[in-house]
Amino acid sequence: xxxxxxxxxxxxxxxxxxxxxxxxxxxxxxxxxxxxxxxxxxxxxxxxxxxxxxxxxxxxxxxxxxxxxxxxxxxxxxxxxxxxxxxxxxxxxxxxxxxxxxxxxxxxxxxxxxxxxxxxxxxxxxxxxxxxxxxxxxxxxxxxxxxxxxxxxxx
Length: 155
Description:
The protein has a single domain, classed as 3-Layer(bab) Sandwich (minor pseudopilin epsh fold). Helices cover 28% and strands 25% of the residues. It is elongated, with a radius of gyration of 26 Å. It contains 2 helices and 9 strands, in the order H-H-E-E-E-E-E-E-E-E-E. The strands form 2 sheets. A 5-stranded antiparallel sheet has the order 3-2-1-5-6, with helices on one face. By secondary structure, it is an alpha+beta fold.
């Protein structure tokens, strides 16, 4: 007598695979609509300003020269050497524009060749310097401490 063997198949059916793909598509579209990286929030732009201050401080220390965070308008700021906007060692021009209606209030700040925050007369700043970013009724602050130049962000 011949035996009949039944072959057990394992895996996913076509319907199961299509269902998973549809669910992944819905999930990805909802994540995309929640927040696109091309539209930075107020807090993200405050973090960018803080990173720019830290970068300017680091560049002034490593290059042994004074650099300035130059607030050119309520929506634009650059890092300059007192005259021209600088390019960092990676070739990135240090010019930034705030978007999505974010407004910047605050003045320029210089860093000496040791990376310390100084005033217009080349003296160490005596009090913390603060920039306020605002949009749609919300605010965020970026603060540089005197002497150490420690940069902090308060959402």
